[in-house]
Amino acid sequence: MRAPDETDDASKSLALAVLGESALRMGNKSPLTPEIFTAHFLSDSSKLPLAAAIALGRAGAGNVPTYLPVILNTMEKGGNTQYLLLHSIKEILQQAGNNPTKFTPYSKSIWDRLMIASQVEDNKAVGAECIGRLAIIEPKTYMPQLQVS
C-alpha cells in the first residue's frame, strides 16, 4: 500500500501527463501556460518535477512559439531547473521529427543552450540525447558542428 504522499504525487503526475498530452493535441488552442507545469519543479517529491518537465515538453511541442522561448530563457538559471528543462526540450525534439519546421526558428538557440547545459556533469546524458536528436533533425547544420566538437 502506498503512503498518502506517494498516492498524491502519483495522481499529480498522471494529471500533469494528461494536461501535457491534451496541450500537445490542442496546439495553440490550448489555454494552458508553461507555468502550470513549471510550478511543480520545486516540489519535494522525487518524481513530480520530472513528470512536470516531461509534460511541459509535450505541451511545448504543441505550441512551440508560446512554450519554447519560456523554456530557453528559464534554462539560463542553471541548477536542477536546467536539468528538468533539458527533459522538456527532449520531448519537444521527439515530437519535432513529425514537423521540424515548427521549431526551426529556435534551433540555433536550442543548440547554444544545449551545448552550454551539457557541460554540467548531471546534464551530460540528457543533453547528449537532445544534441543527437537536433543533429538528426537538421543534419546539414549540426553534423558539421558535432564533428568540430
Explain what the structure shows.
The protein is mostly helical and 149 residues long. The protein has one domain (4-148): Leucine-rich Repeat Variant (Alpha Horseshoe). Helix content is 72%, strand content 0%. It contains eight helices and no strands. The chain has helices spanning 4-26, 34-38, 48-62, 64-75, 79-96, 107-117, 124-137, 139-148. Helix 4 packs antiparallel against helix 5 and helix 6 (107-117) packs antiparallel against helix 7 (124-137). The longest helix has 23 residues, at 4-26. It is globular. The N and C termini lie far apart (50 Å). The model has no long low-confidence stretch (mean pLDDT 91).
Indicate the CATH topology: Leucine-rich Repeat Variant
Distance between the termini: 50 Å
Give the C-alpha Rg: 15 Å
What's the SSE pattern? HHHHHHHH
What's the number of extended β-strand segments?
0
Summed up, the helix count is 8
Structural class category: mainly alpha
Coarse morphology: globular
Residues in helix, %: over 70%
CATH architecture: Alpha Horseshoe
Spans of at least 5 consecutive residues whose pLDDT stays below 50 are none
* Residues in β-strands, percent: under 5%
